[in-house]
Design goal:
There is one protein chain. This protein has 290 residues and is of the alpha/beta class. It folds into 2 domains: 162 residues, NAD(P)-binding Rossmann-like Domain (Rossmann fold, 3-Layer(aba) Sandwich); 118 residues, N-(1-d-carboxylethyl)-l-norvaline Dehydrogenase, domain 2. The chain is 52% helix and 14% strand. It contains 13 helices and 9 strands. The protein has a 6-stranded parallel sheet, sandwiched between helices. Strands 7-8-9 form a 3-stranded mixed sheet. β2, α2 and β3 form a beta-alpha-beta unit. α11 packs antiparallel against α12. The longest helix has 29 residues. The chain is globular and about 65 Å long. The model has no long low-confidence stretch (mean pLDDT 97).
Length: 290
Protein backbone atom coordinates (compact mmCIF):
# COMPACT_ATOMS: atom_id res chain seq x y z
CA UNK A 1 0.00 0.00 0.00
CA UNK A 2 1.33 3.42 -0.90
CA UNK A 3 -1.60 5.84 -0.71
CA UNK A 4 -3.02 6.25 2.79
CA UNK A 5 -5.27 8.68 4.63
CA UNK A 6 -4.90 9.55 8.30
CA UNK A 7 -7.91 11.05 10.08
CA UNK A 8 -7.19 12.67 13.43
CA UNK A 9 -3.93 14.45 14.26
CA UNK A 10 -3.93 14.65 18.03
CA UNK A 11 -1.01 13.81 20.31
CA UNK A 12 -1.11 10.21 19.04
CA UNK A 13 -2.28 10.59 15.46
CA UNK A 14 0.12 13.32 14.35
CA UNK A 15 3.34 11.36 15.06
CA UNK A 16 1.79 8.14 13.74
CA UNK A 17 0.95 9.86 10.45
CA UNK A 18 4.46 11.28 10.44
CA UNK A 19 5.97 7.80 10.63
CA UNK A 20 3.84 6.74 7.65
CA UNK A 21 5.17 9.68 5.66
CA UNK A 22 8.75 8.90 6.70
CA UNK A 23 8.23 5.31 5.56
CA UNK A 24 7.55 6.58 2.04
CA UNK A 25 3.77 6.36 1.86
CA UNK A 26 1.71 9.01 0.09
CA UNK A 27 -0.14 10.41 3.11
CA UNK A 28 -3.26 12.56 3.07
CA UNK A 29 -4.35 13.97 6.41
CA UNK A 30 -7.57 15.34 7.83
CA UNK A 31 -8.20 16.93 11.20
CA UNK A 32 -11.35 18.59 12.50
CA UNK A 33 -9.22 21.58 13.52
CA UNK A 34 -7.65 22.39 10.16
CA UNK A 35 -4.76 24.31 11.70
CA UNK A 36 -3.33 21.08 13.12
CA UNK A 37 -3.42 19.46 9.69
CA UNK A 38 -1.56 22.37 8.10
CA UNK A 39 0.97 22.35 10.94
CA UNK A 40 1.54 18.64 10.33
CA UNK A 41 1.99 19.24 6.61
CA UNK A 42 4.59 21.93 7.31
CA UNK A 43 6.67 19.32 9.15
CA UNK A 44 6.07 16.20 7.05
CA UNK A 45 5.63 15.17 3.46
CA UNK A 46 1.90 14.88 2.83
CA UNK A 47 -1.31 16.54 1.68
CA UNK A 48 -4.06 18.23 3.71
CA UNK A 49 -7.66 17.32 2.86
CA UNK A 50 -10.70 19.36 3.82
CA UNK A 51 -12.95 16.38 4.62
CA UNK A 52 -12.51 12.72 5.55
CA UNK A 53 -13.95 11.70 2.17
CA UNK A 54 -11.47 13.89 0.30
CA UNK A 55 -8.61 12.33 2.24
CA UNK A 56 -9.92 8.82 1.57
CA UNK A 57 -10.61 9.16 -2.16
CA UNK A 58 -8.31 6.75 -3.98
CA UNK A 59 -6.59 5.61 -0.78
CA UNK A 60 -5.56 2.02 -0.24
CA UNK A 61 -6.03 2.37 3.52
CA UNK A 62 -7.57 4.88 5.91
CA UNK A 63 -6.27 5.16 9.46
CA UNK A 64 -8.50 6.72 12.10
CA UNK A 65 -7.36 8.07 15.48
CA UNK A 66 -10.01 10.29 17.04
CA UNK A 67 -11.68 10.58 20.44
CA UNK A 68 -14.85 8.57 20.97
CA UNK A 69 -17.36 6.27 19.27
CA UNK A 70 -19.34 9.22 17.94
CA UNK A 71 -16.24 10.80 16.44
CA UNK A 72 -15.37 7.56 14.64
CA UNK A 73 -18.88 7.29 13.22
CA UNK A 74 -18.68 10.88 12.01
CA UNK A 75 -15.40 10.56 10.09
CA UNK A 76 -16.24 7.10 8.70
CA UNK A 77 -20.01 7.17 8.14
CA UNK A 78 -20.96 10.85 8.30
CA UNK A 79 -22.09 13.05 5.36
CA UNK A 80 -18.45 13.58 4.37
CA UNK A 81 -17.23 10.27 5.79
CA UNK A 82 -14.39 8.18 4.47
CA UNK A 83 -16.26 4.97 3.70
CA UNK A 84 -18.32 6.33 0.81
CA UNK A 85 -15.13 7.50 -0.94
CA UNK A 86 -13.32 4.16 -0.75
CA UNK A 87 -13.11 1.65 -3.57
CA UNK A 88 -13.70 -2.06 -2.92
CA UNK A 89 -10.55 -3.66 -1.59
CA UNK A 90 -9.51 -0.68 0.53
CA UNK A 91 -9.13 -1.04 4.29
CA UNK A 92 -10.16 1.11 7.27
CA UNK A 93 -8.00 0.78 10.40
CA UNK A 94 -9.42 2.35 13.55
CA UNK A 95 -6.79 3.20 16.16
CA UNK A 96 -9.31 4.95 18.40
CA UNK A 97 -9.98 3.34 21.76
CA UNK A 98 -13.68 2.71 21.25
CA UNK A 99 -16.30 0.06 21.99
CA UNK A 100 -16.20 -3.47 20.62
CA UNK A 101 -19.82 -2.93 19.56
CA UNK A 102 -18.76 -0.10 17.28
CA UNK A 103 -15.95 -2.20 15.82
CA UNK A 104 -18.36 -4.98 14.88
CA UNK A 105 -20.83 -2.48 13.43
CA UNK A 106 -18.21 -0.79 11.27
CA UNK A 107 -16.81 -4.12 10.13
CA UNK A 108 -20.24 -5.20 8.89
CA UNK A 109 -20.99 -1.85 7.27
CA UNK A 110 -17.62 -1.67 5.55
CA UNK A 111 -17.91 -5.26 4.28
CA UNK A 112 -21.18 -4.37 2.56
CA UNK A 113 -19.14 -1.93 0.43
CA UNK A 114 -16.33 -4.41 -0.17
CA UNK A 115 -14.05 -2.55 2.26
CA UNK A 116 -12.03 -4.27 4.97
CA UNK A 117 -12.02 -3.10 8.58
CA UNK A 118 -9.54 -3.63 11.43
CA UNK A 119 -10.10 -2.35 14.97
CA UNK A 120 -6.61 -1.54 16.20
CA UNK A 121 -6.36 0.43 19.46
CA UNK A 122 -2.82 1.14 20.64
CA UNK A 123 -0.84 1.21 23.87
CA UNK A 124 2.39 3.03 24.57
CA UNK A 125 1.23 6.59 25.04
CA UNK A 126 2.48 9.73 23.35
CA UNK A 127 6.10 8.64 23.75
CA UNK A 128 5.34 5.37 21.96
CA UNK A 129 3.69 7.26 19.11
CA UNK A 130 6.60 9.67 18.78
CA UNK A 131 9.21 6.92 18.94
CA UNK A 132 7.30 4.53 16.68
CA UNK A 133 7.15 1.83 19.36
CA UNK A 134 3.42 1.38 19.90
CA UNK A 135 1.75 -1.91 20.71
CA UNK A 136 -1.21 -2.40 18.35
CA UNK A 137 -4.04 -4.75 19.34
CA UNK A 138 -6.09 -5.82 16.33
CA UNK A 139 -9.39 -7.48 15.54
CA UNK A 140 -10.64 -8.51 12.12
CA UNK A 141 -10.21 -10.86 9.19
CA UNK A 142 -6.72 -12.40 8.95
CA UNK A 143 -6.39 -11.69 5.23
CA UNK A 144 -7.27 -8.02 5.74
CA UNK A 145 -4.89 -7.78 8.70
CA UNK A 146 -2.08 -9.26 6.61
CA UNK A 147 -2.44 -6.44 4.10
CA UNK A 148 -2.22 -3.56 6.57
CA UNK A 149 0.10 -4.96 9.26
CA UNK A 150 3.26 -4.10 7.25
CA UNK A 151 2.02 -0.51 6.99
CA UNK A 152 1.46 -0.28 10.75
CA UNK A 153 5.04 -1.45 11.27
CA UNK A 154 6.01 2.18 10.62
CA UNK A 155 4.91 3.15 14.14
CA UNK A 156 4.68 -0.11 16.09
CA UNK A 157 7.01 -2.56 17.77
CA UNK A 158 4.25 -5.17 18.10
CA UNK A 159 1.16 -5.52 15.94
CA UNK A 160 -0.95 -8.57 16.79
CA UNK A 161 -4.24 -9.99 15.53
CA UNK A 162 -6.23 -11.18 18.57
CA UNK A 163 -9.33 -12.53 16.83
CA UNK A 164 -12.42 -11.36 14.92
CA UNK A 165 -13.74 -7.80 14.81
CA UNK A 166 -13.92 -6.28 18.29
CA UNK A 167 -11.05 -8.35 19.66
CA UNK A 168 -8.62 -5.46 19.46
CA UNK A 169 -10.93 -3.21 21.46
CA UNK A 170 -11.59 -5.95 24.03
CA UNK A 171 -7.85 -6.44 24.48
CA UNK A 172 -7.38 -2.68 24.97
CA UNK A 173 -10.02 -2.89 27.71
CA UNK A 174 -7.95 -5.57 29.42
CA UNK A 175 -4.96 -3.24 29.13
CA UNK A 176 -6.77 -0.29 30.70
CA UNK A 177 -8.22 -2.36 33.55
CA UNK A 178 -4.73 -3.61 34.38
CA UNK A 179 -3.15 -0.14 34.20
CA UNK A 180 -5.80 1.42 36.46
CA UNK A 181 -5.21 -1.23 39.11
CA UNK A 182 -1.43 -0.91 38.84
CA UNK A 183 -1.53 2.86 39.22
CA UNK A 184 -3.80 2.78 42.26
CA UNK A 185 -1.59 0.17 43.91
CA UNK A 186 1.49 2.25 43.08
CA UNK A 187 -0.14 5.41 44.45
CA UNK A 188 -0.94 3.72 47.75
CA UNK A 189 2.51 2.10 47.99
CA UNK A 190 4.46 5.31 47.36
CA UNK A 191 2.24 7.35 49.67
CA UNK A 192 2.87 4.72 52.35
CA UNK A 193 6.63 4.90 51.74
CA UNK A 194 6.73 8.67 52.15
CA UNK A 195 4.56 8.65 55.27
CA UNK A 196 6.88 5.99 56.71
CA UNK A 197 9.84 8.33 56.28
CA UNK A 198 11.54 6.29 53.55
CA UNK A 199 13.39 7.84 50.64
CA UNK A 200 10.95 7.15 47.79
CA UNK A 201 13.54 7.20 45.01
CA UNK A 202 15.60 4.54 46.77
CA UNK A 203 12.46 2.51 47.41
CA UNK A 204 11.50 2.70 43.72
CA UNK A 205 14.99 1.58 42.69
CA UNK A 206 15.01 -1.36 45.10
CA UNK A 207 11.52 -2.77 44.60
CA UNK A 208 11.83 -2.24 40.84
CA UNK A 209 14.47 -4.96 40.82
CA UNK A 210 12.04 -7.46 42.36
CA UNK A 211 8.54 -8.78 41.82
CA UNK A 212 6.99 -5.29 42.15
CA UNK A 213 8.83 -4.07 39.08
CA UNK A 214 6.74 -2.66 36.20
CA UNK A 215 6.74 -0.06 33.45
CA UNK A 216 4.48 2.11 35.60
CA UNK A 217 6.87 1.94 38.57
CA UNK A 218 9.91 2.80 36.46
CA UNK A 219 8.31 5.56 34.38
CA UNK A 220 5.66 7.03 36.66
CA UNK A 221 6.94 6.32 40.17
CA UNK A 222 9.62 9.07 40.17
CA UNK A 223 7.20 11.69 38.87
CA UNK A 224 4.42 10.63 41.24
CA UNK A 225 6.58 11.31 44.30
CA UNK A 226 7.46 14.73 42.84
CA UNK A 227 3.80 15.62 42.24
CA UNK A 228 4.38 16.00 38.50
CA UNK A 229 1.41 15.20 36.26
CA UNK A 230 1.53 17.69 33.39
CA UNK A 231 2.18 15.03 30.72
CA UNK A 232 1.10 11.59 29.56
CA UNK A 233 -2.34 10.04 29.23
CA UNK A 234 -5.02 12.39 30.52
CA UNK A 235 -7.44 11.42 33.28
CA UNK A 236 -10.44 12.42 31.16
CA UNK A 237 -9.42 9.87 28.52
CA UNK A 238 -8.84 7.15 31.08
CA UNK A 239 -12.34 7.79 32.47
CA UNK A 240 -13.72 7.42 28.95
CA UNK A 241 -11.86 4.14 28.54
CA UNK A 242 -12.90 2.76 31.92
CA UNK A 243 -16.51 3.62 31.09
CA UNK A 244 -16.20 1.46 27.97
CA UNK A 245 -14.74 -1.36 30.10
CA UNK A 246 -17.56 -1.15 32.64
CA UNK A 247 -20.23 -1.11 29.92
CA UNK A 248 -18.70 -4.19 28.29
CA UNK A 249 -18.52 -5.96 31.66
CA UNK A 250 -22.26 -5.44 32.07
CA UNK A 251 -22.69 -7.37 28.82
CA UNK A 252 -20.25 -10.21 29.42
CA UNK A 253 -20.75 -10.65 33.17
CA UNK A 254 -17.20 -9.77 34.27
CA UNK A 255 -16.76 -8.44 37.80
CA UNK A 256 -14.94 -5.08 37.79
CA UNK A 257 -15.39 -4.07 41.43
CA UNK A 258 -11.93 -2.52 41.82
CA UNK A 259 -12.06 -0.84 38.41
CA UNK A 260 -15.32 0.87 39.37
CA UNK A 261 -13.78 2.13 42.61
CA UNK A 262 -10.74 3.51 40.78
CA UNK A 263 -13.00 5.20 38.23
CA UNK A 264 -14.60 6.96 41.21
CA UNK A 265 -11.14 8.02 42.40
CA UNK A 266 -10.47 9.51 38.97
CA UNK A 267 -13.73 11.42 39.29
CA UNK A 268 -12.30 12.94 42.47
CA UNK A 269 -9.18 13.92 40.53
CA UNK A 270 -11.36 15.68 37.94
CA UNK A 271 -13.12 17.55 40.75
CA UNK A 272 -9.67 18.67 41.96
CA UNK A 273 -9.01 20.23 38.54
CA UNK A 274 -7.06 17.29 37.18
CA UNK A 275 -9.03 16.52 34.03
CA UNK A 276 -5.86 16.83 31.92
CA UNK A 277 -3.39 15.44 34.48
CA UNK A 278 -1.62 12.18 33.77
CA UNK A 279 -3.36 9.04 35.05
CA UNK A 280 -0.63 8.61 37.68
CA UNK A 281 -2.18 11.57 39.51
CA UNK A 282 -4.16 9.08 41.61
CA UNK A 283 -1.56 9.71 44.31
CA UNK A 284 -2.65 13.37 44.49
CA UNK A 285 -5.93 12.47 46.20
CA UNK A 286 -3.99 10.54 48.90
CA UNK A 287 -1.67 13.48 49.60
CA UNK A 288 -4.04 16.42 49.17
CA UNK A 289 -4.12 17.06 52.94
CA UNK A 290 -0.30 17.25 53.19
Amino acid sequence: MTTVAFLGLGVMGAPMAGHLASAGHDVRVYNRTAGKAHQWASEHRGTVAGTPSAAAAGADAVFVCVGKDGDVREVVLGPHGALAALAPGAVIVDHTTASATLARELSTTAAASGVGFIDAPVSGGQAGAVNGTLTVMCGGDPSVFARVAPVMDAYSRACTLLGPSGSGQLTKMVNQIAIAGLLQGLAEALDFAMRAGLDPDTVIDVIGKGAAGSWQLDNRGPTMVRDEFDFGFAVEWMRKDLGICIDEAHRNGAELAITKVIDGFYEEIVDMGGRRWDTSSLIRRLRKSD
